[in-house]
Amino acid sequence: MKDDSQNVDSQGKVDRRNMLFGLGGLYGAANLPSNPLAMAEPIKPPELDKCGTATNLNNKEKLDINCCPPVTQKIIDYRLPPVRFMRTRPSAHRASPEYVFKYNMAIDRMKRLPANDPRNFMQQANIHCAYCNGAYDQPGQGTLDIQVHNSWLFFPFHRWYLYFYERILGKLIGDPTFALPFWNWDNPKGMTIPPMFVDPKSALFDEKRNQSNLPPAVVDLGLTGSKDPLQVVANNLTIMYSEMIRGNKTAEDFMGKPYREGNDPDPGPGASERGSHTSVHAWVGDPREKSQEDLGNFYSAGRDPLFYCHHANVDRMWTLWQYFLPSNKVPDKKITDPDFLNAAFVFYDENAQLVRVTVRDCLDNMRMGYDFERIDLPWLDYRPPPQTARAKIIKASSDAPMASTIFPVTLDKIVRVQVPKAKKGKADELLVLEDIEVDTTKLIKVDVFVNDEDDNNNELDKAAYVGTYAQVPHKTTSTTAKTSIRLKLTDLYDDMDIDDDDTIVVTLVPRHQGGGITIGGIKIIEAPAEKSG
Ligand code: C2O
């Protein structure tokens, strides 16, 4: 069951469905779901015949793109086929030469399909553009866009997208066990662009990538720009621990915020989407290109075969989080809201048949017929060491202003403030960055530290690092989005021995160029009671 607090969003607005309920039960009793509060509607799939021009806005320069799929009239409700062969997705760094040969052949055939075949490579890339850059309006909701990022739809949409992509490739080479590789960027052995993607003669190659980040460069999940590869690896493992385990109180903190029919796009990304996921896009995107194509911008991301390998690992993170993380560390793993479960998308399947799929049907990767090669999770216990004495000293010597006196603040430089704790003692508390307003046309990344001494700090492997807000350039109905994030402080109070203090010092470190993000306020609240699930 949901608790009531979830019906009020970060801006304190009461959810539309409560208002409908309040109007004396306009919805007949027969329609009454088991949870009477869930009275809104889920996001509906786009109407392909109304697909419009997509837009790439790069620092306000407007570029129109046509990325609409071919239109067909017949749509089938997709039913997961019985699982006869399990597809096991391999780690891209460990894949055999035979596998690489097969994968290369499959992508090559996909590129050679007729341009108007919905399974063609470019058509597949365009799926991402259309769903992410405003080609589709929500049916019946005026000009309100459909957007599959920055909300709880992020994991389900991309899971279905890869599911059909994988089946199309398997079909093209007659192999019903074919599985996409995953880029194992959460393990030190996988922290370079996988070698199979950098051979210029391969169908897996893409020219438009940051040339300084080709192997052996180590992927920088923190985008700190640190030149020390060992530091970067330590940062990466800390980030993984933080976004998978440490920073989240509820499932929505990890998955993303609710997004229902009639809502504005971009209510807010979960920890995983805004963290490692966004950084990999930005790190691979090509700075020689106007909009950091291909991976650095959503409209073009699907044009790089590496995109699907990256997202196979993003998808793996969802599976790990659901089924492999101990429930004493991650107690709330499910979103049971019907507006989540019944949200739907359309895709062309491996037979070029248009199908309608629901979030409900993609919650279990094994039921969908694929699994992941088992690899160690070196971040699983990567909790930063306690730093009690140092944190005390930093706090005592801080002359940072109180948060209430300086917000709203545009983050064009490092900002440091004191924030009152909700309670003294070992309380279970959340740090809330509220009324975040971002320019959606820009890459944005801000790291959050508590009681940290060092201003431009490229070391994240310490207790003072609490989390990140970030986004990849894309398009929403307008060019700004409002959101908020919550970061769990419980572990940190233990690791820094500051639970007796009245205030903490919060440092916000922007990693991107220029402003583009304004924070409305910052506060600490007591965490809502534990939900089970
Ligand atoms: Cu749809 Cu990584 O983006």
From TrEMBL:
Keywords: Copper, Disulfide bond, Metal-binding, Oxidoreductase, Thioether bond. Binds 2 copper ions per subunit. Residues 149-166, 304-315 form the Tyrosinase copper-binding domain. Disulfide bonds join 51-68, 67-129. Its cofactor is Cu(2+). Residues 254-286 are annotated as: Disordered. The keyword Transmembrane does not apply. Cu cation A binds at residues 128, 149, 158. There is a cross-link at residues 132-149 (2'-(S-cysteinyl)-histidine (Cys-His)). Residues 254-263 have a biased composition (Basic and acidic residues). One of its GO terms (molecular function) is metal ion binding. Cu cation B binds at residues 277, 281, 311. Belongs to the tyrosinase family. PANTHER family: CATECHOL OXIDASE, TYROSINASE FAMILY MEMBER. This is Catechol oxidase.
